[in-house]
Amino acid sequence: MSLSVGQVSGLAGITVRTLHHYDEIGLLTPGERTSAGYRRYTDDDLIRLQQILLYRELGFPLDEIAVILDNPEVDELTQLRRQHELLTRKSERLRDVIAAVERAMQARSLGIALTPQERLELFGDFHPEDHEAEVERRWGGTEAYAQSRRRVASYTKADWQELKAEAAAITEDLVAAFKVGLPPDGEQAMDLAERHRLHISRWFYTCDHEVHRCLGELYVSDPRFTATHDAHAPGLARYLRSAIAANACLRGR
What is the 3-state secondary structure (H, E, C) of 162-231? Predict the structure, then answer.
């Protein structure tokens, strides 16, 4: 059974004009014609059309497609395997592009007003917006969440650099205190916990001592937070939690 040009057009999702053009350049010549000269496409023609459309999807020009398909040393299965490999590579690239676009969309909704170059310089492979869904699920209805979004939306590259430098200095001092064995309920450790709390209050949201105590518990109950802190020094998350709790008892009452 053969199909008319109109039927093939509807089946393949391309125009009749495109099919006529393929015929005119010898890329896809219908295997049959009616007595009146109308084009009729056979099963073999449809298989070739499928090959053409796949290579077109991959960005090959028509003249190169003709050379590929007319190579007598390459059979249909080899063509399909090659197309599968090329399409797989393209899909992987597209996934990366889609992910980048989604991150950009989320960054806009989150309010991180930085250029791509600035974001790469500041955050590297870490994408703050990737965690936005979970943050919103956990704290989306709180004033702290709304306050943090408002503040972050206004930060420039210089603000982020200052924020990161301040956080790094606190972490460095915490690691030093932990490694020399200062007790978490000692004055120096509690002072560091207070610096940590004030850092959050300055840059993100008002963090009172009770909220800070809850954060400390989160640092040891959530493996991801624990891993982040313990990457600086194994056991740092628990040390910080204890220092925060001691500081809250001293200053938060």
Answer: HHHHHHHHHHHHHHHHHHCCCCCCCHHHHHHHHHHHHHHHHHCCCCCHHHHHHHHHHHHHCHHHHHHHHC
